[in-house]
From TrEMBL:
Residues 403-421 have a biased composition (Basic and acidic residues). Residues 403-435 are annotated as: Disordered. It comes from Roseovarius rhodophyticola. The chain crosses the membrane at residues 26-48, 60-83, 95-117, 350-369. Residues 426-435 have a biased composition (Low complexity). This is DUF4407 domain-containing protein. The keyword Transmembrane applies. It comes from the Bacteria. Keywords: Membrane, Transmembrane, Transmembrane helix.
Length: 435
């Protein structure tokens, strides 16, 4: 490649570099202002986030929140100002890696002290409402599960009724003499009636629980309906959270009551007592053969009684072994905690809160890339290639001033008149002096 071609290519690179420098100079006119606006906006949202964390609403708390937000704004502005100036200026790879590490640490510090509070200000109320809605769902599952277990326990009433009816049928057969062969209401009849009466009392107890279960379930649904309304009602979420807490306490009490209304433990104990506690009456047959038949029949009845009691106990154990309703406890949380707890549901808010703090990092990288390009384009260029028109005009003007300076200022100094030297003004020796 000829020297002329090389000079032309170098000149084009210089012009390109000068064009980029002109763009950077124009951008620098408002970059500081833009950075200040971003820092102030972040400080405002930080103030709102801090205010939501403070319980006291007095002047001291307001001043504390304001001081924190101002410190955040100043810190963000100074941090990014340092990087906007220093990172594009360094040229070595080691220095750039070190500054990148410093930028990463500073970004983490900004997220820790500002971004999560900004997210709390942006989506704090919505996050608290999300927490309320999630709690309502948990309470609904717990209430429905408690009701399901209670209804399953109430279904034991049919098992008890079936066993009771079987003993009543046997007693009727004994009354007609079809069981032991002795008609009447003797010892076998009384044993059967004794157990039938016990089962009838148990059946009545189970039946009394049914209205209580349904009443508690209906009241629980009414409380749940009110809690759902509180999650979407307009107004400050803090006031709604207070009423929500009160409703949650009442609902938890109803769920506990429904757990206690299950009859499975009652049926289990009754089934165990059914075969264990039998009052055997005196055999009342007039003949020894009759008394022997009564004793054999009672033995058979006791065997059947044990089998039926085991069946009831197994059914009650199956109900008692059901997975209980989950324990739900509502814990009020602040908007900042809610934003962190339900961060996945508020990704846009988190992205906006972080972007407003870390957007200058993109500007730092853009400026660093541009400065690298400018340095690459200017590499190997002579000084005269980098002069602008204004700089060239200034150099020419200075050169002319030097050339047009008075000539006598460049003459050698004349002799001093007193010393007999030539005068710098007249160029002659003064009179009365020796040659």
């Amino acid at each position: 490649m000829s020297d002329n071609s090389k000079d032309g290519a170098r000149a084009r690179q210089v012009r390109y570099a000068q064009e980029l420098e002109g763009h950077i100079d124009w951008l620098n006119t408002f970059s500081g202002t833009a950075l200040g606006v971003l820092a102030v906006a972040s400080g405002i949202y930080t103030y709102l986030g801090v205010s939501s964390l403070l319980d006291d609403t007095g002047a001291l708390s307001t001043f504390a929140a304001l001081a924190y937000s101002v410190a955040v704004s100043v810190g963000i502005f100074v941090f990014w100002s340092y990087l906007l100036r220093l990172y594009p200026a360094v040229t070595t790879a080691r220095a750039r890696v070190a500054l990148l590490g410093a930028m990463g640490l500073g970004s983490l510090a900004i997220v820790a002290m500002s971004s999560w509070l900004n997210a709390a200000a942006l989506a704090g109320s919505a996050a608290v409402e999300q927490h309320l809605a999630k709690t309502v769902q948990d309470y609904q599952q717990s209430l429905e599960r408690a009701h399901e277990i209670a209804l399953t326990g109430q279904a034991l009433e049919r098992d008890v009724a079936r066993v009771r009816q079987s003993f009543e049928d046997l007693s009727e057969q004994e009354a007609t003499g079809n069981l032991s062969g002795l008609a009447g209401r003797g010892a076998v009849f009384r044993v059967l009636r004794q157990k039938s009466a016990e089962l009838s009392a148990l059946e009545a107890q189970i039946g009394q629980q049914s209205p209580l279960v349904e009443t508690a379930f209906a009241e629980g649904n009414a409380i749940l309906s009110r809690m759902r309304a509180l999650t979407v009602e307009p107004g400050p979420v803090e006031a709604r959270s207070v009423e929500f807490s009160e409703a949650a306490v009442r609902l938890q009490g109803l769920i506990t009551q429904m757990r206690q209304l299950t009859v499975a433990p009652l049926v289990k104990r009754a089934a165990q007592d059914l075969a264990a506690s039998v009052v055997l009456p005196e055999l009342d047959s007039r003949t020894a053969e009759g008394r022997s038949d009564q004793a054999a029949t009672i033995t058979s009845v006791l065997e059947v009684l044990g089998q039926r009691a085991m069946t009831l106990e197994t059914a009650a154990q199956d109900v008692a072994a059901l997975e209980p309703a989950p324990e739900v406890v509502y814990t009020p949380i602040s908007s900042a905690d809610a934003v962190i707890l339900y961060a996945r549901n508020f990704v846009p808010s988190w992205a906006g809160a972080i972007a407003i703090d870390l957007l200058p990092a993109v500007l730092v990288l853009i400026l660093a890339i541009t400065q690298s390009v400018i340095r690459h384009l200017r590499d190997g260029s002579a000084v005269e290639d980098t002069l602008t028109v204004a700089e060239l005009r200034a150099a020419i003007a200075i050169s002319r001033e030097i050339e047009e300076a008075p000539r006598d200022t460049r003459r050698p100094p004349a002799e001093n008149p007193k010393d007999g030297k030539i005068s710098p003004i007249t160029g002659t020796k003064p009179t009365g002096t020796k040659p």
